[in-house]
Design brief:
By secondary structure, this protein is of the alpha+beta class. Helices cover 20% and strands 32% of the residues. It is built from eight helices and 23 strands. The strands form five sheets. It has a six-stranded antiparallel β-sheet with strand order 2-1-4-9-6-7, with no helix packed on it. A five-stranded mixed β-sheet has the order 19-20-22-21-23. Helix 7 crosses helix 8. The longest helix has 16 residues.
């Protein structure tokens, strides 16, 4: 079924009742300006397939629905891959829209294996509370699990227990029967990220304990009902968790600065510093935000830029913040709001900023981690372009490059290659 909506009334074209897309049959969609094109995605119930999307460099907004429920939103060409889990009631539906003529190619990968039953843990839990629960279950106290879960529901998760040297043991718990497959944690640090939750013997309780410093604040999500993922390519494992992990139902604390971003659970341990700089404040003047497409002659590609200038009267010689991964630092981190609040509180001086997007996912992996051509683009092409449009300082000491992960590498490398800029 292919639907095309234009304006309020809309036109509906029916091209059959089955998806035109299959693992061995890519689908090409033609997008007219302002129209929304929709197609069903026939993924077998509870099976997972990875969808590749190619807009040939055009900016396209894509939404994934299960009936009337919005599951995911992404913007091409930067975010061009999506893990899908089939639903038992009805096919998933993909809706695409562009403000300019565009073509969107959809390619569906082969289905991942079905979930396998999870074996019970062979080692006792690190958490004293879970060890006591295991002992109770082994002694025949079948009500112990329900009592534990009622207590966790009342107090909220995850389970936090003090250990030596002021550190804390944090234990994530989920109810998921053995037959449902793997359960994994999405966590913002290597070594812990994507780890499996173990199955407590004689129960449907999954758990994972980690040790963190006191005062830790971090976001996380949990993914259940997964197939065996250890033998899958790292990119597939990461994509499945990014798209299918959800907030912890035991934890009411959420981080979702933009409705298009996925809700994250927030862990805030005792001693964590208060943090509300991301919240818009009615008494704080808002800076000017402009989003545009930028074509690089040096790199031969296009990317999204978000420009920020602070509120107030005429500015001169502003410091400049260059921040990479524009999409993440607009949807997942509300950078303009952060700058508004920090400037108003006089924690930082008035500052201009440019958030630099990636042409696509593959370009991010080649441009950001120590690429001389990308560093030259920043110093020789983008910076002069910004100097002609923004009231920024000419002093290299007034420039800040920042990012996370590959973005952090790009910042360090560009400063090392062009210290004069």
């Amino acid at each position: 079924m292919l639907r095309i909506w234009t304006g309020l009334c809309g036109a509906l074209a029916l091209l059959g009742t089955h998806s035109l897309l299959a693992a061995d049959r890519p689908l090409q969609l033609t997008l007219s300006p302002g129209a929304t094109v929709s197609t069903p995605l026939a993924v077998a119930p509870q099976r997972i397939q990875v969808l590749e999307l190619d807009s040939q460099g055009a900016q396209v907004s894509v939404s994934l629905y299960n009936g009337d429920q919005l599951l995911r939103q992404l913007t091409l060409p930067e975010d061009n891959r999506l893990a899908l889990r089939g639903q038992p009631e009805q096919p998933l539906e993909l809706r695409a829209r562009s403000d300019a003529p565009a073509h969107l190619r959809l390619s569906l990968g082969a289905a991942l294996p079905a979930p396998l039953p999870a074996p019970p843990a062979t080692e006792p839990p690190a958490s004293p509370r879970l060890r006591a629960l295991q002992t109770a279950l082994e002694s025949g106290d079948q009500g112990a699990l329900n009592t534990f879960w009622q207590q966790m529901t009342a107090q909220g998760g995850p389970l936090v227990e003090p250990i030596a040297d002021g550190r804390q043991r944090v234990t994530f718990v989920v109810r998921s029967p053995a037959a449902a497959g793997e359960v994994r944690l999405l966590w913002p640090a290597p070594g812990i990220n994507t780890r499996q939750l173990a199955l407590l013997p004689g129960s449907d309780l999954r758990y994972l304990s980690i040790e963190v410093p006191a005062g830790t604040r971090a976001s996380y999500r949990l993914a259940s009902g997964l197939p065996p993922l250890d033998d899958q390519p790292r990119a597939v494992l990461r994509q499945v968790l990014l798209d299918l992990a959800a907030a912890d139902p035991l934890n009411p604390a959420r981080w979702q600065p933009d409705p298009a971003a996925r809700a994250e659970s927030v862990l805030s341990l005792p001693g964590a510093r208060a943090y509300d700089w991301h919240q818009p404040r009615s008494d704080v003047p808002k800076g000017t935000v402009q989003q545009l497409r930028y074509h690089s002659e040096l790199l031969g590609n296009q990317r999204q830029l978000t420009l920020y200038t602070p509120a107030g009267e005429q500015h001169n010689a502003l410091p400049l913040l260059i921040l990479f991964d524009e999409q993440a630092y607009t949807l997942e981190v509300p950078t303009p709001t952060l700058l508004d609040n920090l400037i108003a509180a006089r924690h930082i001086p008035p500052i201009a900023a440019v958030l630099v997007g990636n042409p696509d996912r593959a370009s991010r992996a080649t441009e950001l981690p120590g690429n001389p051509a990308f560093a030259d683009f920043l110093a020789k092409e983008l910076l002069p372009w910004l100097q002609a449009r923004l009231p920024i300082s000419n002093a290299p000491s007034d420039r800040i490059l920042a990012g996370s992960s590959f973005g952090g590498l790009a910042a360090a490398y560009a400063a090392m290659r062009h210290p004069e800029r």
